[in-house]
Every structure is written in structure tokens, then in C-alpha cells.
UniProtKB/TrEMBL annotation:
It comes from Methylomonas subterranea. Residues 53-102 form the FHA domain. This is Transglycosylase SLT domain-containing protein. CDD domains: FHA (cd00060). Residues 275-321 form a coiled coil.
Length: 556
């Protein structure tokens, strides 16, 4: 487990007892003491429970562990009839003791080390009585007994001797004639101890110096390793984006070729066209070969993405991070950015700050909650997800029609010089025709028209997703955020600015766009509202919303 992927929530069970005049906290003796450990054995949190607990990603667990391989409710420990039991709560990646998978439940013998999946997340659990026994108390130092020496100072035989006087005599640079035998003996012991301590201090200093040099070397090595790993990951990320662009373009061409072949077969069947069987067979073989090549390319893409995640995990493991709420939110933002085609390792700080502002905007309105309720009530989510998956597009595009219309299938936009956008996807009449939808006779009037295909959610979804794919594979270069910006404004100056950028994913992406151009205010709001809604949708309860993650079923 990497320490940047765990968020802990303490839930201590304690009682109080009196110790002289001080109030101290003491563990309940019939409960458990738990240490949350990472893969290196570092302690990330301490917990005490009297009656058992649950562990998982969900916020209402006794121990909250935010990690991709930890389930929402991963495991539980309960005391039943004086016996402690471990329960596997149908976790996706399993619960292990000594490398052995616990399929259902098992009686616990303490102390015990429990592993949650294979992420390097461990719970070291002891019974309170065992923990108390292991905390041995050091015995107090022996009392130093001083032996009075012979009084030799005849000038003031009854003057009281202070601690300062004793220290001055024992630590004086030279012996004094009036020093007694015990004082001289004590001074020799002190001198011998000083010499011994001096040598010990020298050894400690040299050891510390060696550790410091080793630490500097380790930090330097880690920085070099981090930079090299980061560079490899970034290079692979843009290789992935280039392959995605090529696959998307090839998909479009394959669809066009298949459509032509279907038209040819229909013409042959109606005897309107004559073509040799050899030519027909050749076309069919070419299309079949292209489909096979596309499957192979998609497999290669999946392998590259898996390798990329390894590089990113390795890069993150070399960073010192702390499991805080802010860090958890940063990880969600990075995840959404990655899935939308932007490099998470180059995530600008100002972008993260801006996303947080728009999350606060969503928290101040009921619009997101209402739109999700509409989505669930009308069962509109499944056809959108199916279409996006079919064309290999980011699933976070489900939030685009939410921003366009709140998933209102009868939505009608304002009149513009490009026309009137209608339906949940807010398609212009010209765009609808391009992607196979017939606008109704009231296309240029701000009225609902049952003959207008844009108000048919299934038709509008197919057209909207095809339009997204075209932008994704052309000017946007597989950048989901550039797709959003282009979709919002259509044929305008935003597309013109995008086309001025180099025609490759490394140089044409949203981070580069933000550095070189200024988005119109409406488009900026549009992009950040969709992105921040996607972040909230990863863990709505964390952000104060009362709906289930829309994409949760696909990930569990």
C-alpha cells in the first residue's frame, strides 16, 4: 500500500481513572487495540474498540481506509458469547491471515495480523490485556548516596555545604589540597566517565554523520528515481492518448466502410447494382481484417494502461503524503483528470483549486441532487453508459447532458445565431441532421415538437455520443476537457484556438490550453461544472450529498 492512498478515522473506546491528582486515559480492559500499518510496517493510526468494529472505504466504518482495493465495507470484528470473530463482508479483494484467505468468518486468536486485499494494508490487533502487559515500566534510578568526607576547612567548620559547592569541588579543573579521599576518588570516577563518554559521543557523532550522508543519498536517489519514473509514466500516457486517437479515427472509418458495404448489398439485392462476387468478397474480407486489427489494438491499449498505472503507483510511492481529507480529494481530482484524458502527473495546482471552488458551488444548490434523482427515476443512465462504452469514450461524459439540461428530455435552449438547441443533449438542428436525427417542423421555434427526434432520448443519446467521438478523435486529441469546451460552443473561436495547437496529444491538451489561451467565461464554467460534478460523483457522501455514486456498480 502507498501511504498516499489511506485515510484513517479514529474511533477510540476509553474510560478514565484517577492517578493522584491527575486524570489519565486508560484503555478498557475487555476491548481491542488496533494499529493500522502500511506495507513497510509504518503505523498510520491507533484505535481502541470495546465491542468490535468495521473497516472499509465508507465514511461510517469504525476504521476508514480509502484505497482502490479496499471495499466500502471490507471486514468486521465482533464479540459473540465471549469469543472474537473476524467476518469477511463479501469484500472484492479478500481478507487474509498469514496469507490465508478468510472466505466467510473465523475465530480470532490474539495477537493477530490481518491483511485487507493485496494492497499492503494491515491491521495488527491485540487484546487490551495483552497490550497492557507489553507496556513494561522502567524501574526508577537508584538513589545516589553521598558519603560525608572529613571536614578540612577549619576556617568555617559549621558552614552549610550547598549542592553548588559540591559540584564545584567535584568538577574543578585541578585537585585541591583540602580534598578528602572520597572527593578525590569521586573526581577520578568522574574523569574516567568523562573520557568514556567523550569517546562514546564521538562514535555517536560519526554514526549520525554516516546516517545523515546515507539519508541525503537516499533522498537524492529517490528524487532521481521519482523523476525518471514520472517521465516514463508521462511518456507512456501520451503514447496511450495517441493510440486512443488512432483507434477512434479507425472506428469511424470502419463504420463508414461497413455502411457502404451494407448499401452495396442492398443495391445488389434490389438488382440496382451488379458487382462481381470477387469484389464483394474482397470488401468483406477487408472489413473483417480491420475489425480484427481493432480488437488487437484495443488489447494493446488495455495493456499499456495497466503498465501506466504501475508507473504512476511507483511514482506516488516515492512521495511523502499524509492521509488527510484534502489529500483524498486531490486523489479523486487526479483520477477524474486521468479518465478524462489529462495527465494526472502534470496536474496544475491552480486547476485543483478551481475544481474545489466549483465543488462548493454544487454544494450550495440542489441542482445536482435533483438531476441525479431525475436520472434514476427515468432510467436514463444505462443507455448513456452503454453508448459511451461502445465507442470507448470516458464514462464521466455522463455529466455532460446533466450540465446541458439536468437530463430534461424536453429541454429547449435559447435562440442563437446557430439555431435553437433542444432535448437532453441540447443538439442544434444542423448537428442533429449530421448524425441521423430528423428535426421537426418547429425546429426553429422555441416550442416542444413531438416530431423532432431530438426530444427522443435514445436517438439524441446516439447522436450526442457520436458527436463527442468525432470531437474526441479530431481536434480534441483524446482530451475529454477539450471535448467539453468544443461541445459547449460548437463551431466558434474555442475550436479555432484548439486547432492552432500542435496536432498531437502531448501538445494539444487542456493543461497546455490553459497556459496559452483564456476560455470564455461560459465555457470555463461549463467545463469546471462537469468536472467537479464527476469528482463529487466518485464519493457523494464525502461531499455531503445523498445519492449513490452513479458509476459505482460498474466499478464494484
Amino acid at each position: 500500500m502507498t501511504d498516499d492512498k489511506t485515510r484513517i478515522k479514529p474511533d477510540l473506546a476509553v474510560d478514565t481513572q484517577r492517578d493522584d491528582d491527575r486524570t489519565v486515559l486508560a484503555p478498557k480492559r475487555d476491548g481491542l487495540e488496533i494499529e493500522l500499518l502500511d506495507a513497510r510496517g509504518n503505523v498510520l493510526g491507533h484505535f481502541k474498540f470495546a465491542d468490535g468494529f468495521t473497516a472499509g472505504r465508507a465514511a461510517d466504518n469504525g476504521i476508514v481506509i480509502t484505497h482502490d482495493v479496499v471495499s466500502r465495507y471490507h471486514m468486521a470484528i465482533r464479540k459473540e458469547a465471549g469469543v472474537w470473530w473476524l467476518y469477511n463482508l463479501n469484500s472484492t479483494n479478500g481478507v487474509f491471515i498469514d496469507g490465508r484467505l478468510i472466505p466467510d468468518k473465523e475465530i480470532l486468536q490474539f495477537p493477530v495480523m490481518i491483511a485487507l486485499g493485496v494492497a499492503g494494508v494491515y491491521l495488527h490487533i491485540r487484546h487490551d490485556q495483552q497490550a497492557a502487559a507489553s507496556r513494561a515500566h522502567l524501574a526508577p534510578d537508584a538513589t545516589l548516596i553521598s558519603v560525608p568526607e572529613r571536614q578540612t576547612n577549619t576556617a568555617s567548620p559549621h558552614r552549610p555545604v550547598s549542592q553548588a559547592d559540591i559540584e564545584a569541588r567535584l568538577l574543578a579543573e585541578e585537585d585541591s589540597p583540602d580534598m578528602g579521599d572520597y572527593t578525590l576518588m569521586a573526581r577520578r570516577v568522574i574523569h574516567k566517565d568523562r573520557v568514556k563518554r567523550s569517546k562514546s559521543y564521538e562514535k555517536v557523532i560519526w554514526a549520525l554523520a554516516g546516517l545523515f550522508v546515507a539519508a541525503v543519498g537516499l533522498v537524492t536517489y529517490q528524487q532521481i528515481a521519482l523523476e525518471n519514473t514520472r517521465k516514463l509514466a508521462i511518456d507512456m500516457f501520451y503514447d496511450i492518448k495517441s493510440l486512443e486517437v488512432n483507434i477512434a479515427r479507425a472506428d469511424i472509418k470502419l463504420e463508414e466502410s461497413a455502411a457502404v458495404l451494407d448499401e452495396t448489398l442492398a443495391a445488389i439485392a434490389s438488382e440496382k447494382l451488379r458487382i462481381s462476387q470477387e469484389q464483394l468478397k474482397l470488401q468483406q474480407e477487408q472489413i473483417a481484417a480491420e475489425r480484427l486489427r481493432m480488437r488487437q489494438e484495443r488489447e494493446r491499449l488495455a495493456n499499456m494502461k495497466a503498465k501506466y498505472r504501475q508507473y504512476v503507483d511507483e511514482a506516488n510511492s516515492l512521495r511523502l503524503r499524509f492521509p488527510t481529507a484534502a489529500q483524498y480529494e486531490n486523489e479523486l481530482i487526479a483520477k477524474v483528470a486521468r479518465e478524462l484524458g489529462e495527465s494526472e502527473l502534470e496536474l496544475p495546482e491552480e486547476f485543483v483549486s478551481e475544481v474545489r471552488k466549483y465543488i462548493q458551488y454544487w454544494q450550495g444548490t440542489a441542482r445536482l441532487q435533483t438531476a441525479i434523482a431525475m436520472l434514476e427515476k427515468e432510467n436514463l443512465l444505462e443507455p448513456v453508459i452503454a453508448g459511451l462504452k461502445n465507442y470507448g469514450l470516458p464514462l464521466y461524459f455522463i455529466y455532460l447532458p446533466l450540465q446541458e439540461s439536468n437530463y430534461d428530455t424536453r429541454a429547449i435552449g435559447p435562440e442563437t445565431r446557430f439555431g435553437i438547441a433542444k432535448g437532453a443533449w441540447q443538439l442544434l438542428a444542423s448537428t442533429a441532421r449530421e448524425y441521423g436525427i430528423t428535426p421537426g417542423p418547429l425546429a426553429e421555434v422555441r416550442e416542444y415538437d413531438e416530431q423532432d427526434g431530438r426530444f427522443d432520448f435514445a436517438q439524441a443519446t446516439q447522436a450526442g455520443i457520436k458527436y463527442l467521438r468525432k470531437i474526441y478523435s479530431t481536434e480534441a486529441q483524446a482530451s475529454g476537457l477539450l471535448v467539453m469546451a468544443s461541445y459547449n460552443y460548437g463551431d466558434n473561436r474555442v475550436k479555432g484556438m484548439i486547432r492552432q495547437m500542435p496536432d498531437n496529444p502531448r501538445d494539444r491538451n487542456f493543461w497546455t490550453f490553459l497556459q496559452n489561451y483564456e476560455l470564455p467565461a461560459e465555457t470555463r464554467d461549463y467545463v469546471f461544472y462537469i468536472f467537479s460534478a464527476a469528482v463529487i460523483g466518485e464519493d457523494p457522501q464525502h461531499f455531503g450529498f445523498k445519492f449513490n455514486p452513479p458509476l459505482y456498480k460498474l466499478k464494484s
